[in-house]
From TrEMBL:
Pfam families, per the entry: HET
Organism: Microthyrium microscopicum
InterPro entries noted in UniProt: HET
Name of the protein in its database record: HET-domain-containing protein
Boundaries of every Heterokaryon incompatibility domain copy: 64-216
Domain of life: Eukaryota
Amino acid sequence: MVHIDANDPSVARQAKAWLDACLEEHDECRRLHWSGVNPTRLIRILDGERVQIVKLADSLNVRYVALSYCWGDLNDEERTLVDRGNTWSASEERRLSPFSISEFPKTIVDAIKFTRDVGIEYIWIDAVCILRDESPNPDKTHELGLMHTYYGNALFTLSLSSTTKATEGFLRPRNAWRYMESSCSLNGYEIISIDTTLDDAREHSPLAGRAWTLQEELLSPKRIYWFAQGMYWSCAQAQWIEGVKEPKFRPTPRVAEINLVMSLEENFLLACRKDRAEVVRTEWLRSVESYAKRDIGRSVDRFAAISGIAARYHDSFQGLDQYVAGLWRSGLPEHLGWRVVSLADRDGCDDVLKSIPSWSWAALPMKTMIWTHPKRFSSIYEPSTNDLELKLDSLPVQNPKWHADEAVHQGSLIKSIKVKGRLRPFWSDTSTLKPWKEVFVINKQGTEVLSDDFSVDDSVHAIHTSDGRMVVTGNRKDEVYGHLDFVQDIERAFSGSLEVNCLQLSSSSMLLLEQCGDMIYRRVGVSRNFWPGFFARFDLVEVTL
């Protein structure tokens, strides 16, 4: 049964019991920490009302909790409360001595109290342990680059999924799921009540909409999720739900099964640890899908907020792969083939996003849903002898002495690449633009099909005005479909000011490009469906993207 009073001692005892069980029994979880390095600053909990900032970076491993939470949209009064709780250059020296937790907003106060009740002396909270001064702020720049290690080394991460802002607090009455798990029989069948799964619960959590929290989740070996209805524990080997007697153990999966039985949050670290390259690559694509649809306060943090996941990926390949503005060199033809689910709006891109290469998903506006993995598409990615060739001399030389963090940072600065592949127009000069409704009709089953009035001999192209789909037909061949990225390009394609070219990525995918210079192109969309001989008459050329 979930206790209605979040401050009841039984709640913290339950969390401690989960932690102790994991520490004592889960061999796999002990292997998933990033390193033995402590954060630059930690909050030391002295008693119920006082704390102090300590610097233990040079000390032996310190057991600490990391907090993952939403800062939220704050009004002026709330902003004042949050700013007062932040640590600034002017207040750091004073906070090295004991001070009252009354300086903090309610969420941070509750996190400190809960950590103390679980029996942990230290906690890491970004707003308190990173100096919040405006730029130039070398401390903030340095610490943001290490955040993933702080979550990766924490005893556990406390993920607050019941609050939308830092001023709300979470140790408040809990009213849902206050029942004992019971069962009954009906016609010989045993019926039991089923709690909301963790995957379902966190999908609708406020944290699921915040960009920074993705790597906080993925890189934390052990997590306690705090929902308004109760707590969940999740680690590589077990999942527990507060109030449910029987623990939901996960047998440690074999390498070949990791991707089949684990969710993204539990799968990534295990895949890196098990050295399963294809699984790690798949998890990166899944991570990008989750990340792209989240929001972030500052577009300048677009790469920084996923850099920890990228660093762990880079480390799992022992530095042999190279980060290329959100993509990876080893899988570039496949990684270039992402697709927006719904048309993006270029008006949502500020100057920072516009400076990111058009072929990177990171150039899209915040909160854009995309598909990255081939299984999302009707056609499966099939490498071929015609795969795109990346010209390595167009990439900066990767220093083997760089740590993963630096290698990822340098990769995020890449603005263009040179590739060699087959290039052709999407539609021919003799093709006629037709309205979509003249090319396709809806049959009795509600399916969109080619109109009977349309001849396969006709050289025609059409553009769907609502979703950006494009189709080319003719020469008695199967239709070739494409999909634009931005809504603004629909009108340009209709007016003839956008000439769409195709660059073959593989036997099943191609980039849609617009020429913007001498053999210089920018991405405008993607295609995952074309007939085998579509590029047969076109030679290999070298282009800059």
